[in-house]
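ok here's the first one, seq then struct tokens
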Amino acid sequence: MLKTGINLLFINLLLFIYSNETVNAQSKAPDWTRDPYRKYDKQLYIAAVGIGSSNQMAEKDALGKLVAIFGQSIQVDEEITTSYQEAVSSGVVATWSEKTSVSSNISTSTGMDSLIGVEITDRWDNKRDFYAIAALNKRTASTLYSDIIKANQSTINNLINISAIEKNTLEGYARYQLAAIIADITISYVNLLNVIGVQGGLYNTKPGNDYRLEAQNIVKAIPINIAVTNDKSARIQGAFAKAFSELGFRSGGIASRYVLNVNVVISSTEHSANNIKYSRMELEANLTDTSAKAVLLPYNFNLREGHNTLSEAETRSFLTAERKINDEYKKLLSDYLSQLTLKNR
């Protein structure tokens, strides 16, 4: 009994010491660790406190909580954000933007994970838990984001201010796709201003899908002439036409600016040991801009099929080529159009 009583006394003593240390530690903690608005005026700032096992983790937590205050209203699809980041970092946005004093801000505003004007203004720790406070000055944010919204709208206007002839081209399509990306990001900035109490809606920014719809209309107005030599039962022609059609393009048009020149070369060999005949196909397809006299998208492959008759071997080679084009070309063309949107000119 005595031993048990001593153990209980020892445990209670440890709990008392730990409790006192905790109380002392908490009493020394700045008020802002419990409420960021003990440090900042809520009318002038948006603030959040982060906690973590290190200063870096606490700062990251504080920034994440600050962004979370704005909720879904400023969230943008990850693919769009990535495309915008690529367009900014590669200089594409700068190509179409006016030379203004906010260009440096645009270069840093590539995502809502790093709000412009946010600062980590204080840190505190008790050797076990680390705290950081992140704050955004509403007035500063209002000025910065308002300027960026205006600059982005100017960039969009520069992108789509083209003649009807220029518009119905692959470059016109790329311009409208880039305008759509910038518009989506800009709307997130407008929403941010609304959250902090500024009438961002006054900027009357069109949604990105309006520009994407026009980009699709452009594609529908661009005929692609597909010219294939040495085809068989129009299998190669049909496979390429399918890829273009699924992306919205029209096939045909002898006088079209864009031509897919496809050259198919068939050769045959025979394996004397087992009397197998082989048909070898070499295919080269170049999407060409006849106006610029430039190959836009090259594509080529070679394959071989065998059978005990040369006719069947050749038929098999065309069937395999058709499947290969169906599997590969649509994605290749789609990737090219995406990169065209982000290509600096």
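and now the second one, same deal
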Amino acid sequence: MRTIHKYKLDDVAHANIIDMPEYAEILTAQVQGNDIYIWAMHDTVDGDFPHPEDKIVKRKFHIYGTGWEIPDESYAHNRLQYIATVQMSPLVWHVFEEIE
């Protein structure tokens, strides 16, 4: 069975490191309340989180504001995978996952 889980991103100045199953599928990032979250779908067994056979890894997410510089080495080497743009009036944030 697959289940959707949400994970809070709480640092716009630094990378957000989140423990999650290696093969979790990132669905989107959005604002809920006053915080930015990502939603990911992954295997579970009877609702247990995570599936006992899944390898848990540290996945790295970045939040950049409109007009912010993105490090050349991350973007040029396809290390950043775009997830979503979220609006927290008056700010607009862009969420990426850093791929190793």
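notes on #2: The mean pLDDT is 88. Residues 2-98 form one domain.
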